[in-house]
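Hey L., structure's done. Input below.
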Amino acid sequence: MNVNAINGYSSDPGGAGGAYSLDGLAAAVLDGRGAVVRWTATAQDLTGVTAEEVCGRPVRELMADLPDDLRNGPKMPASGRVRLRHRCGDVIDVTFRTIEVEGSAEFLVLAAPTHSVADHEQGAALLRALSSQDRITIALHDTDLATVQTNATRGALDGRPVQPGTRLSGVLCAEDAEDLEAVLRQVLQTGVPAVRRNQQVRWRQDPARPHTLSVSAFRLEDGKGRPTGVAALYIDSADELRTRRHLDLAREVAERVGASLDVVRTAQDLADVIAPAFGDLAVVVLAHSVFEGDEPSRQVGGGDLHLRTAALAPADAVWPAGIRHGGLVPPLSDHPLLRSSQHGKTVVYGREDFVALFGGPQPAQYVLPEDAHTVMVAPLYARGLTLGDIVVWRTGRSDPFTEDEADLMKQIASRGALAIDNARRYTREHRAAVALQERLLPPATTDTAAAETAGVYLPAGGGADISGDWYDAIALPSLRLALVAGDVVGHGMPASATMGRLRAAIQTLADLEMEPDELLTRIADLVQRLAAEAPPGGHDSIGATCLYAVYDPVTQRCTMASAGHPPPVLVRPGGSAEPVGISPGPPLSVSGMPYETTTIDLEPGSILALYTDGLIERGDRDIDQGLRCLTDALAASCRPGRALDETGRALLAGLVDQMPRDDATLLLARTRAVPAKNTAHWEIPANLAAVCEAREWAARQLTLWGLNDLLFTTELIVSELVTNAIRYGRPPAELRLIRHNVLVCEVTDSSSTQPRLRRARTTDEGGRGLFLVAQLGTRWGCRHGQNRKTIWSEQHIDCPR
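Output:
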């Protein structure tokens, strides 16, 4: 292409200054002495002097000043700049060039204003620079969109879509040529330029490999404004698009990788970002210990590296038999490239190198995609640990990896390694927290004379966040059962530790057989003490709510108290359900306030549900709505023949979000009753003669129950307990026997005096009663009620009836 012709002038590279073809170019013919022989109209336009006025006169007379090269003689230099006088008196700066006329002493002088020449020269320089670029094609198309001129050479198709004298369809695939011609035709018809339009094209000689061109087109017009064609710039934007894709890929890695604290999920996010955007296939392999949250070994060299596949992408790709989720990576040869990778370098393997890494074609075939030609391995290196590798394959006709892509993958692997290591460390901490939580919580199910229970617990975040919610079922003396549900403020290890301390304290106080209101008062004092011991700024983070209930299967009554905790739900044997009307006291973080007890009667087969607020609180409903949903769900789910643990899991799954923001705990207790035939009562007269009568009554009752083997020990226990009630207590008093898997002997009187076990001296006549009771029974104790106390003793029954 004659590039300069596009801009309206041409230059002769052989001349000193070039030859100009500009609108308004002045021309004159001088003789050998420098006198004007001929004068053109354009020269007259330039100077305002007519031919009649100037012909025959030396041209020097028109000059405002003489340059040095004109003062030395009449001969004009080949080119230069002079200042001419205009007829009106102005001075014009012009650039000229002289051309000798063959066969004559005359010579032609061409001149134009210097500023006009400079503009055209800069434009020509710009066009020459554009036409010399490897990835820029300049083309002129006529009104039929045939190529008129182009800087592309025939046969040079790499990055250049057109050839002189051809149409686009002669170079591009038909469909792509039609799309590109549609753009040019629109520019020709409307005159609106097309600027940086990206077009996907395929060469006819290589249709399998697409290219991206940035197309800019402008309409050409003649002097009257009529369209004469289209000037188009075709720029190969592959590098630009590649750079943009790399930036987009790095940004997507930053946005997507690391959002999860699960090791496998993080690895999968990393693989999904890489393939197919960067490579055709991607695998993330991690050290076996990383899955468990532990640090990987620092093994270097070949052998069994204890690597497992954590992620594959794309998921629907055809993978070799040896690559599957969770699968082990076969032993590797001690290859130099392997050691480079183990020292933190991103390595690109050819197919042959990869085959050698696995010890030959046969084992490599087990893990090598069939049409893979290049593989890149980037180590996942973070905080001094090599967690695993990212393995990316290019297959089929895709381009091999470049050095720039290896640098990019190194950056991606670095960010991915940090995300995976964060997930690994979280897994380790979470596993420790889960282990602590499992050891702090009671068994999921219990089976006692009072009730069968089942507890379920779901941490916040669907298991991702351990907290301080808990439940408990504590077996108490006289076949009674304490039911507990509590919720500690906060999450994590501190909340779990606080929960453990509260649960231990409640179990201790429960063994002292305190009433529910008194027990909660003591626990509130403990919470206040824990808050005082907290580090500065952490006082307000210590708090809890709790519900404590005690069920007696003999009386079939349940007494409960609440410290800011939601009420339990009672499901009666007939299937109806309702919240229990209790008067909740303040949370345990507020001490000095009284708690009220509520007592209800429970039929055998009733289900009492204790829970924490995570079960009834959700973003789309308030607490009252949540409680109604729970009540309805319990009424529908709690059927007589259905196992409680199954019921609890189903309720939790139906009522709690998949990723709850708070812990959810549910404790179900299906109550039982001790049959009336297994209990016996006897009013104790207020005289010492009643001791003998009590022994005789107890012996008759044990004989009736078939417990003759316990007659002797029971008579001694009854004798001592009744004697103490008559001697130290106040009437009325009562003796009660309860038979289940243990024989319970209880003596209740109206005194609040606490009995004390002591060792009597040899000379003492008394003081051995409770010592004998403790030695004869498996355990004994004392509990206090309102204006009364009960001393009890238990004996194990070998064959319960």
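Confidence is low (pLDDT under 50) at residues 1-22, 154-159, 760-767. The first strand starts at residue 26 and ends at 30.

-- N.
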